[in-house]
């Protein structure tokens, strides 16, 4: 009889053997034929012939373990043991020494998680990683087969092989462990330095939900620094959504992406696709220099000396995808023409292309890239000017905004002088939670009209959705200028919705209803 208290705790276990009277009587008759001493000894050690199990019935509805034991912090007496077992899961080949470890975990999910990276009851082992960097990891066929159709075919399919040890040289140990943790614990644990390897493992073993989580992780961490590498990997993994996201970043922040270290790590096919890109928003001299940097690293990968000849060799026909004839003449004369990568005939023909009326035929693409067309979000319905405003004395005009889709802010549209033509000096800033994401100091000329005049950042700034950013400008120039009126708190610009709110940084009067910074210039 198992006695429990109201909280379900085991209080006492009592065992009763119920002897049937007839059985005892018959045995006593048989034993009487033996001697008295023998009879006395055998009767005292007489084992029970049968026993009866009585089930106590209750009218209460049966509950699952999770209902009886709600999730909460374990008692002080068990906390140390639970933490010890969790710590053992982080290491390899640790078994559970406690005889009743199952009692520490109220749900099947938690008990199943104990088996993660645990030798206890393991019926298969994996040797994961390339030679010289392998790690031996335990597994349980049933759990793995439930989590992956590939493992199911491997262990229970028609062509299943009964191997105790399986070698997996093409997967990194950390990535394989991340996949096992998902299968065993239903937990997704991703890191920036292993997420690509984890995505590869999830794709190889057909774990789609983990693969989707990896892609989401990559999309949220996507930037100009890693966009080219992720483009290469997204094509390899056949993830079209991630590919499209990468192209959006590369197009809008092309110069940053081409100058990043990750650009030199891409494969040749990805290099060709970037050089062909019609909407690449970059100067052609930047594209040319990026291709030479890639060629130098590629020579090292192929164990070649990074000479001019070898650089041209590894570039191959991709060299002609660079639109050298569309460069500014100064960029060509001081850059590409003196790089040594072009032949003498190619250099002469390109110079003739710039200067001669009858242009020679070139192998290079001579049509300029289209680039991206910037969009303008205008937040005022009208503008005006008065004799006593809008004045600038080193004070800041500022406004906060948020978008519902990822965009790239290229600059601001600003009002100019209301008293004839004038030149202004503008310091523009873009901040998120006080952190400066982009800034620039430049000048613009105002012709005295009520038009807006663009002021650009050095590079477009990536803006994430559903987060407020602060746009600020400090102007220096003619004191009187136009200013906006009848401001809108929400503006629909194409497929992007922009919301505005007042900023505490504004010390010159600009707010939602009126003031400066009438336009946001962006790529979407």
TrEMBL record:
Protein name per its UniProtKB record: BTBD3 protein
Pfam families: BACK, BTB, PHR
Stretch list, region Disordered: 25-46
Biological process according to GO: cerebral cortex development; dendrite morphogenesis
Organism lineage: Eukaryota, Metazoa, Chordata, Craniata, Vertebrata
Domain of life: Eukaryota
Keyword Cytoplasm: yes
Biased composition (Low complexity): 34-45
Primary localization class, coarse: cytoplasm
Keywords from the named record: Cytoplasm
SMART domains per record: BACK, BTB
GO CC terms: cytosol
Domain BTB positions: 122-192
CDD domains per UniProt: BACK_BTBD3, BTB_POZ_BTBD3
Species name: Centropus unirufus
Localization in the cell: Cytoplasm
